Amino acid sequence: MTLLESEVPIRDVITTDPEKAKALENDVRAKVLDMLADDEMTIEAITEELHRRGEDKAETTVRHHVNVLRDADMVEIARLEDAGGGTRKYYRSNTRIFSYELPDDAEETLAPAQETATEETAALVETLRRAHGDEIEAVAREMKPCEYCETQHYEEFVVRELLNRAFIELSEGEGFDELR
Questions:
Q1: Which SMART domains match (predicted)?
Q2: Are strands 87-93 and 75-82 parallel, antiparallel or unpaired?
Q3: Where are the alpha helices (DSSP H) in 24-153?
């Protein structure tokens, strides 16, 4: 006897590579990415800011976290300065993480916008499929399986990655200026 049967729609999709997923397993690293999103900082400055945010970490620990983020290609050296016989490194995030929760009434408020976005995106995906389907399929064939998944959605991932990169280009240019 079935007590409950319900359709469970997909409500969220997280796309990232395994190295980035592992790098984000630690709250401190997420805080470091947030700090480096708009400013370049040294290990010393990151350590001080973490302390201000309630995280008492040794500089060696902070350096480890920054190196994990660098290895995952989420943080880069933005600037090097001569520091009296040594070199001072300034780091900056090249990755933006959105970790927000929409207000309770957002779904209802945004329903018309969601409908427009769905229609426009469906048309864009169809255009991409017609104009670049062969390239998308070629890249999908070369992808390695996700270590967590048995079901693989390579072509969907490639299209999502294209759209994500388009959003990045828009946000780095003038595409989102009016929304900031």
A1: HTH_ARSR (SM00418)
A2: antiparallel
A3: 27-36, 43-52, 59-71, 106-109, 111-142
Query: Per-domain residue ranges for the chain?
Result: 18-93, 106-174
Buried b (16+ CB within 10 A) or exposed e, 39-71: eebbbebbbebbeeeebebeeeebbebbebbee
Q: Mind listing the pLDDT tens digit for each residue in 25-79?
A: 899 999 999 999 889 999 999 999 999 999 999 999 999 999 999 999 999 999 9
Q: Considering just the CA atoms, what is the radius of gyration of the chain in Å?
A: 21
Quote the pTM value: 0.75
| 93: enclosing H helix or E strand | strand 87-93
Locate 169 and state its tokens: 């280009």
154 exposure class (CB count in 10 Å sphere: 0-12, 13-18, 19+):
middle
Please name the fold of domain 18-93. Answer: Arc Repressor Mutant, subunit A (1.10.10)
What confidence tens digit (pLDDT) does each residue in 1-39 have? 777 777 777 777 677 788 888 888 899 999 999 999 889
